[in-house]
Write a structure and sequence with these properties.
GO cellular component, one term: membrane
Structural class: mainly alpha
Strand content: under 5%
Order of helices and strands: HHHHHHHHHHHHH
Radius of gyration: 20 Å
Number of strands: 0
Largest sheet: none
Number of helices: 13
Pfam families: EamA
Distance between the termini: 28 Å
Number of domains: 1
Membrane topology: Multi-pass membrane protein
InterPro entries: EamA_dom (IPR000620), EmrE-like (IPR037185)
Protein name: DMT family transporter
Shape: globular
Length: about 300
């Protein structure tokens, strides 16, 4: 019974999402003291070692030169997204950063239109505008953020966060372009190894080595980061995407819990209402795209391949 419960895809996904929120909380707590540059470089190093070991253990074929060039570009963009999002975590409340981070899903459609010429429906345009109305509400709080002046810079945090979401939308479209050519293990390997190769020499050259006490924390971040990817891949292999995708928004609940428990952060009502609007907009975009595909293929949504 217990073994069957642990193998349930919904439970696996919830655990992975909670772990992802835990990573964000750990970054928020560790980055100011350890240094964001060290955290990124060593987190990707340990994640890259683990990802490369899995890649070799599964005997995946050596990537082509075209794949290496493509994933190097994507990996550098991934590094930019991680840097800006982690910085935003140090300047914003955990739940706020999580809620506003959902806007990456709203940006995928316009980015896909620019990059690969995908059509955008009027419903998608309307849902996207509604979602950014939710963003405007989420970032406005009559009572303030409860942040002591001089300790954080909310404006820079918001700029960094939205820079990260725009970059991540491009990453998602790039993944869509390449997903049929490489498997998830190969993609995960590049996602970790490329940022490590790019970041580690610069970090060590400019700032030296981090304090030894920080190394175990970086190792934990690397292992947890790869574990989240592994668990989500496992969950999506065992259940339809439309069942699991809405669970990703439970990250807001976990972030609120971790923010309250570890940083004494109290999200205001405008954040919750704005987040609800953002999430509803994301779900409209996601399911509208799926049902449009159903109309074009003449198949029920449940029969469409995941």
């Amino acid at each position: 019974m217990f073994a069957r419960l642990l193998s349930a895809p919904l439970l696996i996904a919830v655990i992975a999402i909670a772990m992802g929120s835990g990573i964000d909380a750990l970054v928020k707590g560790v980055a100011p003291g350890a240094g964001l540059h060290h955290l990124l470089a060593w987190r990707f190093l340990f994640g890259g070692i683990l990802a490369f070991a899995v890649f070799r253990a599964k005997r995946r074929p050596a990537p082509s030169g075209e794949a290496i060039r493509f994933h190097t570009m994507r990996g550098l963009l991934q590094l930019f997204c991680a840097f800006t999002f982690f910085y935003a975590l140090t300047q914003l409340r955990l739940a706020e950063a999580t809620a506003l981070g959902f806007t990456a899903a709203l940006l995928v459609a316009p980015v896909a239109r620019v990059m690969i010429g995908e059509k955008i429906s009027l419903i998608t345009v309307g849902a996207t505008l509604l979602g950014f109305g939710g963003v405007a509400l989420a970032v406005w709080e009559p009572g303030g953020l409860g942040v002591t002046p001089g300790e954080t810079n909310r404006t820079l945090g918001l700029v960094a966060l939205f820079s990260s979401t725009v970059g991540y939308a491009f990453v998602l479209v790039l993944l869509r372009m390449r997903a049929t050519k490489e498997d998830a293990t190969t993609i995960a390997m590049f996602t970790n190894v490329v940022p490590a190769i790019a970041m580690l020499p610069v970090t060590v050259g400019l700032f030296g080595f981090p304090a030894l006490a920080s190394i175990p924390l970086f190792l934990v971040l690397g292992v947890l980061g790869y574990s989240v990817w592994f668990l989500m891949t496992l969950a999506y292999a065992r259940a339809p995407a439309q069942q699991l995708a809405p669970l990703e928004y439970t990250a807001l609940i976990w972030s609120a819990i971790f923010g309250l428990a570890f940083f004494d952060e109290w999200p205001g009502w405008t954040l919750w209402v704005g987040a609800a609007i953002i999430i509803a907009s994301c779900l409209i975009v996601a399911f509208q795209g799926r049902f449009r595909t159903r109309r074009e293929t003449g198949l029920p949504a449940s029969d469409l391949p995941e």
